[in-house]
Amino acid sequence: MLIRDARPEDLAAFAPIFRAVVEDGETYAYPDGLDDDEIRALWFEQSPARTVVAVDDDGTLLGSARMGPNRPGRGAHVATASFMVGEAARGMGVGRALGEEMLRWAREQAYAAVQFNAVVETNTAAVALWEHLGFEVLTTVPAAFESRRHGRVGLLVMHRLL
What we know:
The chain has 4 helices and 7 strands. It is of the alpha+beta class. It has one domain: Gcn5-related N-acetyltransferase (GNAT) (Aminopeptidase, 3-Layer(aba) Sandwich). It has a 7-stranded mixed β-sheet with strand order 1-2-3-4-5-7-6. A hairpin with an 8-residue loop joins strand 3 (61-69) and strand 4 (78-85). The two termini are 25 Å apart. The relative contact order is 0.16.
């Protein structure tokens, strides 16, 4: 697997992953039915932020991560990131590889910490991964996410010092 900066032509392969993750209704609060231009605007970051993709040996896009400052100005020393992995690639270490790349990049960019603002508490695979990579849960915002399968569930604020 190769992790590289996203290119404009990656949108065609990433958009179906984005739509499937959003339509599943378990991890992101983006609206259903976004077109490619709306997905590009939401996911493909501009410098100083960054979007990467994970591709396998034959060039198949497996997942993506976007990363950058959590807040502007006086909050810009803390990074944040979002991750999506295609269903066929789950359980293959793609999320871990993307998370490790984000942490490497955040350190290289001299961020002091990384904060995730909204990890859905029922997304146990993601919560376990982030805890394994050194994140801790600071708080839970109760009933802040409308899960398709579980109803209203909490959103975790997770944090890791660099």
